[in-house]
Every structure is written in structure tokens, then in C-alpha cells.
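Renewal narrative, Specific Aim 1. Our central claim is that a sequence can be written position by position from structural information alone. The example that follows is taken directly from our test logs and has not been curated for this report. It begins with the C-alpha cells describing the chain, in the order in which they were read.
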């Protein structure tokens, strides 16, 4: 499985990428939507894990742009806020919506679930 992690919290995405690598999951990461789009132009991903709220380009807007590059990619949204509005937007746009902080096993399970669906 190849995963794209996008969150403006660098410590979070680097830690997630490292922990996923221990589980034989290849993960690239970005702290900006623009860099994520660049990565998606050169690498095919099975799943994108996107933060809902990021500066300049929200997770929902990033997803819409990524779909043009990789129409078969699946999406999981993350949020640290957990508001009802985020929940509705996330559920409408992604296969799964998770609230931070999250455990790595829950993320791995969610990724496997969306890839198999």
C-alpha cells in the first residue's frame, strides 16, 4: 500500500510516516497542499490521509484537486477539532473521517478498510 499523508503539523506526519514504515506501508508526507499535489503528479497512491484544516488549501479542496490527478485514490480525513461541521464535510468527501489524536493501529485499519472497499 502506498499512502500520502498531508497535515500542517510536521511532527505528526513525520511520526505517522515512520510508524507506517515499520508496518511495511510506504508513506510520503507533506505539510502543504501544494507539495502534496507535486507528489501526486509523480507517484501513484492508494490512499491520501488529509488534514481537514490547513493554511491556504483545506483538505476538502485538496481532495478535489487530487481527484483530477489520481481518480482512483481513496481518502481519509483527519481533524483535531471534531466539530459537527467538519464531521459533515469529512463524511461527504472521504471514505472515513478520524479525529486526532489517533492511534496508529486505528489509522492502519482505516486505510486497509478504504482500500478494500
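The sequence written for that structure reads:
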Amino acid at each position: 500500500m502506498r499512502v500520502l499523508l498531508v497535515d500542517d503539523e510536521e511532527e505528526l506526519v513525520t511520526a505517522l510516516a515512520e510508524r507506517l514504515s515499520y508496518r511495511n506501508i510506504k508513506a510520503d508526507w507533506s505539510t502543504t497542499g501544494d507539495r502534496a499535489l507535486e507528489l501526486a503528479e509523480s507517484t501513484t497512491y492508494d490512499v491520501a490521509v488529509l488534514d481537514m484544516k490547513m493554511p491556504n488549501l483545506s483538505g476538502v479542496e485538496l481532495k478535489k484537486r487530487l481527484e483530477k490527478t489520481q481518480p482512483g485514490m481513496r481518502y481519509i480525513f483527519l481533524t483535531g477539532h471534531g466539530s459537527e461541521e467538519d464531521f459533515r464535510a469529512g463524511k461527504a468527501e472521504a471514505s472515513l473521517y478520524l479525529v486526532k489524536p489517533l492511534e496508529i493501529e486505528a489509522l492502519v485499519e482505516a486505510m486497509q478498510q478504504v482500500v478494500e472497499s
